Amino acid sequence: MNRSIAIGALWLVVFAGMAATEIRAATQGIPSTQAEANPDGRLQGLAREAALRREAQALDARLLPKAEAGRWNEWLPTEWPAPAHAVPYGEAVLAYQASDVWRAVGLSRELLLQEPDYPPALLLMAASFFRLQRYSDAIECYERLLRQSPSSVGRTRQLGHCYHSLGRSREALEHYARVLEAAPEDWQAHRARGIVWLRTGNLEAARIELEPLLQTHPEDPDVLYGWASLLYEDDGTKGLREAAQAACDAAPYQSRTWYLLAQVALDLDLPELAQSARARYEELLASENAIRHLQQAWWADPSNLERLEQIARLTLASGDTSAAERIYGQLMQAARRADDTPRFERSQRALAGLRQVR
Questions:
Q1: Secondary structure of residue 145 in the 3-state scheme
Q2: Cα(291)–Cα(278) distance, rounded to whole angstroms?
Q3: How far is the C-alpha of 49 from the C-alpha of 41, rounded, in Å?
Q4: Using 50, 70 and 90 to split pLDDT, how confident is the model at 47?
Q5: Quick one: 148 exposed, middle or buried, by C-beta within 10 A (0-12, 13-18, 19+)?
Q6: Which residues contact residue 115 at a Cβ distance below 8 angstroms, ignoring those fewer than 6 apart?
Q7: Which residues of 269-302 are buried (b: 16+ CB within 10 A; e: fewer)?
């Protein structure tokens, strides 16, 4: 009997960050640091930040101004931003790295209004929109980038993920082929192409992409999940339970791996395993849905630290202590900046407890 499961779009967020020293150099003199010492300036800064995020959320990337043809022909992907662009671009990168994603979009927008189709700003805006699941806007940014700078194709793997997420499988496969032509060693593009082949039912093509990755990247959660899904779809039993268990072990806090294990256990007539895996799947799925909702709300208004604290608590309740430690650290820093002493102390205690049991 042909087996069929829902294999969701992979969350393969790809972003080429700057080195720490380059970030510090690019962000020296940013006005927001001066506002903290001046209450009036701080209030003005907060109002500007709120307006920046509102404008970002209302943005239609298709309406951004376009550069004249050939404007960026000479730009190279390895080129560091010019002095006039380094500070605003560096500030946008810092916002992205701090998960202040709408601010990253807003700052990128300001730079693109001043310098239409500026490639680094397009790349950063595209990555931000992808993270926000605004795939159509991300596609617009990536396609603009490639029209202006075709040599950047090796850095646009994520465009294939956007096509894939919208069900545009043919375009995704075509784009991965372009990426791999420019960057043949990009194993993540092979992995992503394997997943698309799997979703479209071409199991042999999926096997050709995924099987070598079991040797070169045997601990990658997405490779293991893809391989287990392939075995399940291929209607075989050899190695199936072991593959599904390996996917769970590699990503024990992802609901999809437990769903797959539950389905495999049902097919192999392992009712106790199926029941326990199904229960864990439902528990994690509920947590993921709640966290996703809170995360979108927090990204829209990062000053609402109650949402970030709820995310931290839900993450800890799921058992993912490493992720919880990271989020509590983020919360502690945000609470310090906001002079929220009770929340700062709670997050500090939570962090201390997590580090004791690490």
A1: helix
A2: 20
A3: 12
A4: confident
A5: buried
A6: 85, 121
A7: ebeebbeebbebbeebeebbeebeebbeebbbeb
Contact 182, 153 (CB under 8 A): yes
pLDDT at 44: 66
Q: Which residue has the tokens 């791996």?
A: 257
Instruction: Specify the residue for token string 């995310």.
Output: 311
Q: What is the pLDDT of residue 211?
A: 97
The span from the CA of 148 to the CA of 138, in Å, is 16
Structure tokens at 35: 């506002």
Q: Give the max Cα distance, the chain.
A: 70
Alpha helices in 157-234, H assignment, sequence order: 157-165, 169-182, 187-199, 203-216, 221-233
Q: What secondary structure does DSSP assign to 199-218, as a single string?
A: HTT-HHHHHHHHHHHHHHST
Other residues' Cβ atoms within 10 Å of the Cβ of residue 20: 8
What are the tokens at 207? 């096997």
Q: What is the pLDDT of residue 69?
A: 87
What is the residue type of 26? Answer: A
Give the span between the Cα atoms of 334 and 308, in whole angstroms: 9
The pTM for the full model equals 0.83
Per residue in 258-293, pLDDT tens?
999 999 999 999 999 999 999 999 999 999 999 999
Residue 158 has which token pair?
């994520």
d(CA 225, CA 120): 33
pLDDT, tens digit, 9 for 90 and up, residues 138-158: 999 999 999 999 989 999 999
Check residue 23 and give its pLDDT.
29
Nearest CA-CA partner of 73 in 178, 154, 165, 148: 148
DSSP letter (8 states) at residue 74: T
Region 291-304: what's the mean pLDDT?
A: 94
Dihedrals phi, psi of 49, to nearest 5 degrees = -65, -40
